[in-house]
Amino acid sequence: MSYISLEGVSVNFPILSVSEYSFRKALISSLSSITSNGNIVSNGSSGCMVRSLNEINLSLDIGDRVGLIGGNGAGKSTLLKVLAGVYEPTVGTVTVNGHVGSLLNVGVGMTDEASGYENITLCALLMGYSKEVITPKIEAIAEFSGLGDYLALPVSTYSTGMRMRIAFSIATAFEPEVLLIDEFFGAGDSSFFNKAENRMSDMIETSKVLIMASHTDDLLKRFCKKGLVMESGEIKYYDLIGDALNYYHKEIQGKN
């Protein structure tokens, strides 16, 4: 059985809702010639939708390290969010075996009025971990962040770098079986970056399946064995990472 399976997965986002006589309805009429193969799909008189993913079929097994390759709007982030359970597919089925850990929007769920310590628990709960799992991790997360006594203060008093430190420390404190990463980033100030990079490498090594989106070829070659090229919400190519990058630069970037 595949560790991850997507069968016929499409994701549409409604963007217009119109009454019978409106400028927006006229706009939809002008778009009516665009079919489901495009990014904008007419939905009759009720509006139109952006199709972010279009009939994705994909199976991944233990040991797969997949880099998502494509330009802005290709569907990479949407695919990761579907796998993370953030988005439900409009059509199709998604099966993921194992606990999912994601570095997508680091810091989402943090509460400004709560202290750093309180946010450790709150964010970990939102990630789907139980208090029994979280509690033994709290001190290690606090120590890794390097924020010391600031953890007793409300997050609203933190600088951007401090917020990134605690968010990254929480997000990477656990060992997920399926690891999803949307762009590699520098976490906080330069003194924290090397420690953060080492932890990221450890997480990637211990995960059973990695799916990572990045615009950096060297990073994809470093961590991924295979590459999945996306364009307009569709899979265009899936093979070894070097071949996939060559395809992208020649066939996708080359025609634009």
Structure in words:
The chain has 256 residues and is of the alpha/beta class. It contains nine helices and ten strands. It has helices at 23-30, 76-84, 116-126, 131-134, 138-145, 160-171, 190-206, 217-223, 241-252; strands at residues 4-14, 40-42, 48-60, 65-69, 91-96, 100-103, 178-182, 209-213, 226-231, 234-240. The strands form two sheets. The chain has a six-stranded mixed β-sheet, with helices on both faces. The chain has a four-stranded antiparallel β-sheet with strand order 2-3-1-5. Strand 9 and strand 10 form a beta hairpin. The longest helix is centred in the C-terminal third of the chain and has 17 residues, at 190-206. The protein is globular, with a radius of gyration of 21 Å. The two termini are 39 Å apart.
Percent of residues in helices comes to 25-40%
User: On the 0-100 scale, what is the average pLDDT?
Assistant: 85
Strand order of the largest sheet: 6-7-8-4-9-10
Order of helices and strands: EHEEEHEEHHHHEHEHEEH
The number of distinct helices, counting runs of at least 4 residues, comes to 9
| End-to-end distance | 39 Å
Tally of DSSP β-strands:
10
Shape descriptor reads globular
Sheet with the most strands?
Answer: 6 strands, mixed
* Radius of gyration over C-alpha positions, nearest whole angstrom: 21 Å
Category by helix and strand content: alpha/beta
Beta-strand percentage range: 25-35%
Low-confidence stretches: 31-37
